[in-house]
Design brief:
This is Orn/Lys/Arg decarboxylase, C-terminal domain. It comes from Lacicoccus qingdaonensis. Keywords: Pyridoxal phosphate. Pfam families: OKR_DC_1. Helix content is about 35%, strand content about 15%. Helix 3 runs parallel beside helix 4 and helix 3 crosses helix 7. With about 425 residues, it is of the alpha/beta class. The two termini are about 40 Å apart. It has three domains: about 100 residues, Aspartate Aminotransferase, domain 1, CATH 3.90.1150.150; about 210 residues, 3-Layer(aba) Sandwich (Aspartate Aminotransferase, domain 2); about 60 residues, Molybdopterin biosynthesis moea protein, domain 2. The radius of gyration is 22 Å and the shape is globular. The protein is built from 13 helices and 15 strands. Bound molecules: pyridoxal-5'-phosphate. The site of pyridoxal-5'-phosphate has 14 residues, from helix 3.
């Protein structure tokens, strides 16, 4: 029972969560209202997720209340299902997709499956482009909580220029939850918006919602959601979407901003530096005299688990604190006080030689995870800079999906 033992181990540590899901080990939100007995299936009275007419239609209508004018569909297979469905729903309506800035692998998987033509552009470039018959795919906010400066303008220009806009709001289900938070792209009329409720709101992993503002497009989306999503939806996940949405509606921000400030002050008193992001629920932390990769190891050791590490620092997803939350804040402070900074910086470990990859064609897309943004796509050629980045990330133990297949392919060829 390895998995069960590992989970029990984390529970008894007890682990402190600075990562998704937003319920932070069930200390934030109202998921205690769920009962294991709620793991039902589509029996009489529980409706049909892919053709909802009863309680699930009511759930969707409840979600639609977030942005009047939008239709919503609860999803149990995460935002990935919504992104794949969105690309399929638009593939025959547009000549080309335009992927703006970095995008999650699910975007590339959708484009790969459909075989659709696409190009990559930056959010600055898009403002000068001819957009007719194109579909833009934007990621907003980013994994680290950054917004897009000209979001309103980009969407406005796209609509006026005859382009459709898909927004991957996986990290923004809590957009607009209170003053100071980022505004959703739905405020500006994006055509399809997909949000992971499970990331920043207190919902179970897998909980997402798809929003569309056109009935015909919504129907096409429903067709593809039916293709990609399980036909045995988890009612625990569906119920958690309802609870998270109620949480969103009831949220009062005072407690959140007070506790956020307390955490940032505490970190600074211990010689941490804190970088704030556009999303107030994301911060990036560093500590003088060590790399972020060493810092995350030290935090893990103390059972304080972070969301991600990059060269910029360690990313924390802050809890959406509310009155009555059960988040172990004093325990967090005690552990931060006692952190031991001895040990070797993984930066001192020598990197491996992957120079044989330079110039070779990637046989599989390589994706550092997290954040899940591809660094090179299958069919592209490894450059010196890409290989350098891969070596750098690997000796910092960043997980790299797809790299082993490339190494195996060319290492063998090289050895013969
Ligand atoms: C930007 C982005 N989009 C989409 C996804 C996929 O979301 P989900 O895990 O809900 O399928 C992720 C997951 O990390 C992501 O970071």
């Amino acid at each position: 029972m390895r998995l069960i033992n590992k989970l029990n181990e984390l529970r008894s540590a007890p682990a402190i969560s600075m990562h998704v899901p937003g319920h932070k080990n069930m200390t934030v939100g109202n998921l205690d209202r769920l009962n294991w007995m709620d793991d039902m299936t589509e029996i009489t009275g529980l409706d049909d997720l892919h053709s909802p007419e009863g309680v699930l239609l009511e759930l969707n209508e409840f979600l639609s209340g977030k942005y009047p004018g939008y239709m919503a569909q609860a999803v149990v297979n995460g935002t990935t299902t919504g992104i794949l469905s969105a690309i399929y729903a638009l593939k025959d309506k547009v000549d080309q997709f335009v992927v703006i800035d970095d995008a999650h692998k699910s975007v590339y998987h959708g484009l790969d499956l459909t075989g659709a033509s696409f190009q990559k552009k930056s959010s600055e470039e898009i403002l000068t482009m001819e957009l007719k018959n194109k579909a833009l795919i934007l990621t907003y906010p980013t994994y680290s909580g950054d917004g897009i400066k000209d979001l309103a303008h980009i969407i406005e220009k796209s609509r006026a220029g005859g382009a459709a806009v898909i927004v991957d709001e996986a990290h923004g289900a809590h957009n607009d939850i209170a003053p100071g938070f980022l505004p959703s792209a739905m405020n500006y009329g994006a055509d399809i918006v997909v949000q992971s409720y499970h990331k920043m709101l207190p919902a179970l992993t897998g909980a997402s919602a798809v929003f569309t503002n056109d009935r015909q497009l919504h129907r096409t989306m429903m067709k593809y959601i039916d293709y990609f999503e399980t036909s045995s939806p988890s009612y625990l996940i569906l119920a958690s979407i309802e609870l998270a949405h109620q949480f969103y509606n009831d949220f009062v921000h005072t407690e959140f901003y007070d506790r956020r400030l307390e955490i940032m002050d505490y970190l600074q008193s211990l010689d941490f530096t804190v970088i704030e992001s556009d999303d107030p629920a994301k911060i990036i932390i560093n500590r003088e005299g060590m790399s972020p990769y060493q810092l995350i190891d030290i935090l893990d050791e103390a059972h304080i688990y972070s969301e991600m590490v990059t060269d910029e620092g360690v990313l924390w997803c802050l809890p959406l604190f509310h009155v009555g939350h059960g988040y172990p804040l004093s325990s967090l402070f005690e552990r931060l006080d006692k952190l031991s900074y001895d040990g070797t910086d993984p930066a001192l470990v020598r990197g491996e030689d992957l120079s044989f990859l330079i110039g070779k064609e990637a046989v599989r897309t390589v994706v550092p995870y997290p954040p899940g943004v591809p660094i090179i796509h299958a069919g592209e050629h490894f450059t010196h800079d890409i290989v350098k980045t891969i070596i750098h990330k690997r000796y910092y133990h960043v997980k790299m999906e797809g790299i082993e297949d490339n190494i195996e392919c060319y290492k063998v060829e090289d050895d013969t």
